[in-house]
Amino acid sequence: PHWRCPVTEANRPQRIMVPIDVAHPRPYALRYARMIARLSGADIVVAFSSEEPGHSEGAGFAEESEEKMKRRFDLELAPFIREHLECEALPESVLGIGEPGDVLIRLAREYEIDLIVMSPHRRNAFSRRLVPGVAAKLIHEAHCAVVCVPPDKVQ
Questions:
Q1: Which among 92, 100, 91, 111 has a CA at the least distance from the CA of 24?
Q2: 139-144, Cβ contacts within 8 angstroms, sequence gap of 24 or more
Q3: Fewest CB within 10 angstroms: 65, 117, 121, 155, which?
C-alpha cells in the first residue's frame, strides 16, 4: 500500500529532494536524482537537517542561527554537490531543525516535493528493529514517493 512507482511518463516529478547527511555525505542519491532530473526536467532541492542549531567545536558545542548554519552547510558541501550533480550552479538548499525524519517530511510538504531520493545508512537487522531509520519513516509517512538508493546501484 505504501509503494508507488516514482517516475512514469504520466507522473514525472517536478521537484526532487535529496537529503544529505552533513556528517557523512554520500554521493549515490545525488547521482540518481541527477539522472531522474535530466530525464524529467525536474528541479533538485538539497535538504539538510540538524537536531540542534549549532555545531561541535572542540570538546563543546557552539550554537548558531539556522541562517548561519545553512550558509555553513552550503559552503562546506558545495564542491561535493557540484561534483556529483555535475553542475556549476548549486541547486536550492533547505535546512530544518529537529528529528531528521520529521524534518524531512515537513520540508517535503513545505517545498512541494514530488520525489525524495535518498541513500540510507547500512544498519544491521537488530538496530533496524530497535529504532527504525529515517528511510523507513519517510517511506511510511511522506506524502510523496521515496526512492532509497543502495551504494552499489549508481555509478
A1: 100
A2: 139/2, 140/2, 141/101, 141/105, 142/104, 142/105, 142/108, 142/116, 143/105, 143/108, 143/109, 144/108, 144/113, 144/114, 144/115, 144/116
A3: 155
Amino acid, single-letter form, for residue 102: D
Task: For residue 146, give the 3-state DSSP assignment.
Answer: strand
The pLDDT confidence band at residue 1, using thresholds 50, 70 and 90, is very low
**pLDDT tens for each residue of 7-16:** 555 678 899 9
Q: Which three cell numbers stand for residue 128?
A: 533496524
Q: Provide the pLDDT confidence category of residue 72 given band limits of 50, 70 and 90.
A: confident
Which residues lie across from 57 on neighbouring strands? 60
DSSP-based helix, strand, coil % in the chain, nearest 5 = 40, 25, 40
